[in-house]
Write a structure and sequence with these properties.
Elements: H1 29-42, E1 46-49, H2 54-66, E2 71-72, E3 82-84, E4 98-100, H3 105-108, E5 113-114, H4 117-128, E6 136-144, E7 153-159, H5 162-171, E8 173-174, H6 176-182, E9 189-194, E10 204-208, E11 213-217, H7 222-225, H8 228-244, E12 247-249, E13 251-257, E14 263-269, H9 276-280, H10 286-291, E15 294-299, E16 303-307, E17 313-316, E18 321-325, H11 335-340, E19 346-348, E20 351-353, E21 358-360, E22 372-373, E23 379-380, E24 395-399, E25 416-424, E26 434-436, H12 440-448, E27 451-453, E28 465-467, H13 480-494, E29 500-504, H14 524-534, E30 541-542, E31 547-548, H15 563-570, H16 574-589, H17 597-611
Helix pairs in contact: 2-5, 12-13, 12-17, 16-17
The chain binds guanosine-5'-triphosphate, sulfopyruvate and manganese (II) ion.
Manganese (II) ion binds next to loops.
Length: about 600
């Protein structure tokens, strides 16, 4: 980085734009004091403030390429695109090493790992101490949500990784404007990231909700180190939301425009790698397109929601880009996502095609490259190798503005009004294609009992069914029982303006292990039913678990799926659900006194209905 200058003066904060001397990005004392404290701890060779300028980012890209941290891809085919490979032991979130460090253990609850805060600080500081020696400290001021939105919040991440800087510059709004908006305020979230030496044994992702602080050490993988994302926008923000009366959820947000030009918004919570990005960007089936239906993406992973002046629930996407799963993304499954990744994108842990310096992943097309390097960095021949070219949790980091179906409301400071909330999981059996909850509290119950097969998004076994309430099991920053209570409370606050709550399951398997429902774009057929239910335009069949569609009310036009097959995935088997109820009861047992009475009542009524 030729333009960088080392600066030892405490307040001399230069940028790479060539500004010299005492240029300061902020006078905010709480920010400057904390940075001094962290600087003394980690001992960097220099400090570089990220001002958000393209010149500075371009200099950092060049530096990352010069050290091999990133590879510049074919700029004709993939302009502004780069490839990065993480360490092979550092490819997913590490739930076992993720901690909520609330003062009281009880406040972290039974579903989180907990560490006593003073002990945690000591342990983390011991690991972090001196770890920036020979490295640069990058200071990233970032906003979660459109800068200046009443729903937005500000954080500062310190990192010794250019990869993190460049990803944060895609995933969030970074730079001078953020600090200008912050002014003298002390209301911001501290985030310290230290790569250290990527020692898996000393890897910790720790959250101090009472201190608005996140510390992440010994990882370089997305969800562990892009601290604005899961750490802030879900774990810290869920805690803030509980205290301030709003919600931070692991949800996509999409708008469905009908042929009359009216747009209705839906938020949906599915566990990691269970279809949020795909649903958020779906392409309507031909018949719907012809009629004039359009789908607009507001967000694919996180929603911050608050009661608006009109009493409805309004949502923003706090992110500015997509950190999406690469494998399986193709021209057919998600052309919008694919198009989004064709420029200005950082690919992580995908295969590198050496013939034309592009990227490839399983499920992109049927022509794997012959002359390639796999995600581990080894020579790879996709036509003969039995190894995977891309890691199953390989990802793209792409700017939201690239998305062909990005919503015109994406930058809206007020967000969008939510008509329906969907919970969904990956379940081979048990859960029907779609059902509607009986009312808000029953909907909270439906969210709380979500179960899904685990995926490669987190380290550990894949394909094991586990309870993942509201898709927030790994992301709730406080006691999950209190979180359920907060959901119940939000229902009271919203009253009859509350969104209707549904459950979907795109993943039912037949006896040969094939998906029964075509999924992807065809999921719009289910969303149409959901919106009709919200408007009271269509009837439904009452079952023990909620309302399921009459098969005739799901539009199958243009689909190679017969009514009998559809009926088979709309069926609710009371015997299977009676077994399920036992599992729910056992799961609920974890929460003791913290389980809201409303949910106990819901479980009891479910059991009664099943016994009938
Ligand atoms: P995170 O970014 O990890 O939070 O995940 P996500 O929920 O955004 O997951 P994503 O949309 O990337 O889905 C990943 C996986 O789900 C891929 O393997 C997709 O092929 C698969 N998938 C998505 N939608 C569908 C669907 O409708 N049907 C089927 N069968 N698979 C789907
Ligand atoms: C998830 O795992 O739910 C993700 C990817 O969205 S990460 O940012 O790694 O958490
Ligand atoms: Mn996610």
């Amino acid at each position: 980085m030729q333009t960088a200058r080392v600066c030892n003066n405490k307040v001399c904060l230069f940028t790479l734009r060539g500004r010299k001397g005492n240029y300061r990005m902020t006078n905010n004392k709480s920010v400057l004091n904390w940075i001094e404290e962290m600087k003394a701890l980690v001992n960097p060779d220099q400090v570089v403030w990220i001002d958000g300028s393209e010149e500075q980012l371009e200099a950092l890209r060049a530096e990352a390429c010069s050290t091999g941290e990133m590879i510049k891809l074919n700029q004709d085919k993939l302009p502004g695109c780069y490839l990065h490979r993480t360490a092979v032991n550092d490819v997913a979130r590490v739930e076992d090493r993720t901690f909520i460090c609330s003062r009281k253990e009880e406040d972290a609850g039974p579903t989180n790992h907990w560490k006593e805060p003073q002990e945690a600080y000591k342990m983390l500081y011991d690991i972090a101490r001196g770890s920036y020696k020979g490295r640069t400290m990058y200071v990233i001021p970032y906003s979660m949500g459109p800068i200046g939105s009443p729903l937005a919040k500000i954080g500062i991440e310190l990192t010794d990784s250019i990869y993190v800087v460049l990803n944060m510059a895609i995933m969030t709004r970074v730079g001078q404007k953020v600090l200008d908006t912050l002014g003298d305020s002390e209301d911001w979230v501290k985030g310290l990231h230290c790569k250290c030496d990527i020692d898996a044994e000393k890897r910790y992702i720790c959250h101090f909700p009472e201190d608005n602080t996140i510390i992440s050490v010994n990882s370089g993988y997305g969800g562990n180190v892009l601290l604005g994302k899961k750490c802030f926008a879900l774990r810290i923000a869920s805690y803030l939301g509980k205290n301030e009366g709003w919600m931070a959820e692991h949800m996509l947000i999409l708008g469905i425009e009908n042929p009359k030009g009216e747009i209705k918004y839906i938020a949906a919570a599915f566990p990691s790698a269970c279809g949020k990005t795909n649903l958020a960007m779906l392409i309507p089936p031909a018949g719907y397109k012809a009629k004039g239906y359009k789908v607009w993406c507001v967000g694919d992973d996180i929603a911050w929601m608050r009661k608006g002046p009109d009493g409805r629930l309004w949502a923003i996407n706090p992110e500015n880009g997509f950190f999406g799963v690469a494998p399986g993304t193709n021209e057919k499954s998600n052309p919008n996502a694919l198009a989004t990744t064709r420029k200005g994108t950082i690919f992580t842990n995908v295969a590198h095609n050496l013939d034309d310096n592009t990227v490839w992943w399983e499920g992109l097309d049927k022509n794997p490259p012959k002359n390639a390097v796999d995600w581990k960095g080894n020579p790879w021949d996709g036509t003969t190798s039995t190894e995977k070219g891309a890691h199953p949790n390989s990802r793209f980091t792409a700017p939201a503005k690239n998305c062909p179906c990005i919503s015109s409301e994406f930058e809206s400071v007020t967000g969008v009004p939510i008509s329906a909330i969907i919970f969904g999981g990956r379940r081979a059996k048990t859960a029907p294609l779609v059902y509607q909850s009986r009312d808000w509290n029953n909907g909270v119950f439906v969210g709380s009992i979500m179960a899904s097969e685990t995926t490669a998004a987190a380290a550990g076994a894949v394909g094991v069914v586990r309870r993942d309430p509201m898709a927030m099991l790994p992301f709730c920053g406080y006691h999950m029982g209190d979180y359920f209570a907060h959901w119940i409370e939000m229902g009271k606050v919203l009253g009859d303006k509350a969104p209707k709550i549904f459950n979907t399951n795109w993943f039912r398997l037949d006896d040969e292990g094939h998906f029964i429902w075509p999924g992807f774009g065809d999921n719009l057929r289910v969303l149409e039913w959901i919106l009709k239910r919200c408007e009271g335009e269509v009837d439904a069949k009452e079952t023990a678990i909620g309302y399921v569609p009459n098969a005739d009310d799901i539009n199958l036009e243009g689909l190679d799926l017969d009514k009998a097959t559809l009926e088979s995935i709309l069926e609710v088997d009371n015997d299977v659900w009676a077994e399920e109820a036992k599992g729910i009861e056992e799961f609920y047992g974890k929460f003791g006194d913290k389980l809201p009475q409303e949910l106990k009542d819901q479980l009891n009524s479910l059991k009664e209905r099943l016994a009938k």
